[in-house]
Write a structure and sequence with these properties.
The structure is a single chain. 29% of the residues lie in helices and 24% in strands. It folds into 2 domains: 179 residues, Fructose-1,6-Bisphosphatase, Chain A, domain 1 (2-Layer Sandwich), CATH 3.30.540.10; 128 residues, D-Maltodextrin-Binding Protein, domain 2. It is of the alpha+beta class. Bound molecules: 1,6-di-O-phosphono-beta-D-fructofuranose and magnesium ion (2 copies). One magnesium ion binds next to β5.
C-alpha cells in the first residue's frame, strides 16, 4: 500500500512541490466532507452571487473556493492563485515558487442532484520579476505546467494526477489518506463511446455536425462502428471515464455566443485535463490545434475542447482539417 506522499518521494518529486500537493489535498478532503454532508450541512442550493463569467454560483462553489484559497495562500511555496470563481488572480508569498490555477468545483450544475463533481488544478512556476497577483504571471501555455490533476467526488473520492511522467490514481481511504490504486494509466487508442451535449447540435460548426452525424449512423455509416453515448455534464467525470475505459469528450465551439471560443476555460479545465490526457497516451485539441499550444491572453479565457482516445480524436480532427 503506497500513500500519495510516499509515492511522490519515491519518484523524486521536489519537497516544496510535495508540500504544495499536500495543501491541495487537504483542501480537497475538506471539500469532500462538505459534499458528503450536502443538505445536512445546509450547503446545497443557489447562492446570491454571480461569478465573473456571469453564471450563478452554487453555495458549494463559493465554499470550495474559499477552502482552497485559504489553505493555498497559507502555504509559503505559493506565489499566487487564480480561480474560476475569482475575478482576478490573488498574490501569495512574493518569495513563493509556484502559481496554482483551479476550478474549485467542476460540474456544479450536478450538486443539487447529487451527481459527481470535482476539483481541477494546475501548477505553474512563477516567472521571475512578476508578482503572483499579476495576471501576466499566468500567461503560460499548457506545456509549461509542472503538475495537474483533479479530485473526483463520486461514490469514492479519487485523485488523478500527473507531474509529467505518467498519470496515477489515488483513492481517498476512510482514514483520510490518498492511496495509490492505479499506476501509469493508459487510455485505449480506439473507442466506441462519445460524450457531447447533443442539445447544442444546431449551434455547432458544420464540421462537428458532419462528424457527429457519422457517429450516429453507427456501423451503417462511414466510421463502420456502433457508438454508445454518455454525458454526465461534469468534465471531471467525463475525463475520468475516458482515462478508465477510453472515449472521446467534446465541448466544441458553438455560435450561441460568438464572442467566446468555447464554454470551458483554458486555465482551469482545458490545460490541466489536456496534460493528463496526453500523459496517458491520449490527444487533446481545440478540434484544430493542440490545446496545450494555445497561448493564453486572459486568465478566464475559454477554449473549444475535443479529447480522449487518440484514434478517435484524430478521426474527429480530419473532419475539421482545412485543405
Ligand atoms: O451544462 P452543459 O452545457 O452540459 O455543460 C457541462 C460542462 O460545463 C461544466 O459543468 C463547466 O464547469 P463548471 O461547473 O465548473 O462551471 C463542465 O464540467 C461540463 O463539461
Ligand atoms: Mg468547470
Ligand atoms: Mg466550477
Amino acid at each position: 500500500m503506497l500513500l500519495l506522499n510516499q509515492y511522490l518521494k519515491h519518484h523524486e518529486t521536489p519537497d516544496d512541490l510535495i508540500d504544495l500537493i499536500d495543501s491541495l489535498m487537504l483542501s480537497c478532503k475538506e471539500i469532500a466532507i462538505k459534499l458528503r454532508e450536502g443538505a445536512l450541512a445546509g450547503v446545497l442550493g443557489t447562492a446570491e452571487g454571480v461569478n465573473v463569467q456571469g453564471e450563478t454560483q452554487k453555495k458549494l462553489d463559493v465554499i470550495s473556493n474559499d477552502i482552497l484559497k485559504a489553505i493555498l495562500l497559507d502555504n509559503p511555496t505559493v506565489a499566487g492563485i487564480a480561480s474560476e470563481e475569482e475575478d482576478f488572480p490573488v498574490g501569495g508569498n512574493p518569495e513563493g515558487k509556484y502559481l496554482v490555477t483551479f476550478d474549485p468545483l467542476d460540474g456544479s450544475s450536478n450538486i443539487d442532484v447529487n451527481v459527481s463533481v470535482g476539483t481541477i488544478f494546475s501548477i505553474l512556476s512563477k516567472p521571475e520579476g512578476i508578482d503572483g497577483g499579476d495576471e501576466a504571471a499566468y500567461m503560460q501555455n499548457g506545456r509549461k505546467q509542472i503538475a495537474s490533476g483533479y479530485v473526483l467526488y463520486g461514490p469514492c473520492a479519487v485523485l488523478v494526477m500527473t507531474t509529467g511522467s505518467g498519470v496515477n490514481m489515488f483513492t481517498l481511504s476512510h482514514g483520510g489518506d490518498f492511496i495509490l490504486t492505479e499506476e501509469n494509466v493508459q487510455i485505449p487508442e480506439q473507442t466506441q463511446e462519445f460524450g457531447i451535449n447533443m442539445s447544442n447540435q444546431r449551434f455547432w460548426e458544420p464540421e462537428m455536425q458532419a462528424y457527429v452525424a457519422d457517429l450516429l449512423q453507427g456501423e451503417e455509416g462511414p466510421l463502420g462502428k456502433r457508438y454508445n453515448m454518455r454525458w454526465v455534464a461534469s468534465m471531471v467525470a467525463e475525463v475520468h471515464r475516458i482515462l478508465t475505459r477510453g472515449g472521446i469528450f467534446l465541448y466544441p465551439w458553438d455560435n450561441r455566443d460568438t464572442s467566446k471560443p468555447g464554454k470551458l476555460r483554458l486555465m482551469y479545465e482545458g490545460n490541466p485535463m489536456s496534460f493528463l490526457i496526453e500523459q496517458a497516451g491520449g490527444l487533446s485539441t481545440t478540434c484544430y490545434d493542440n490545446i496545450m499550444d494555445v497561448e493564453p491572453t486572459k486568465i478566464h479565457q475559454r477554449v473549444a475542447v475535443g479529447l480522449g482516445s487518440t484514434g478517435e480524436v484524430e478521426t474527429m480532427m480530419k473532419y475539421h482539417a482545412k485543405d
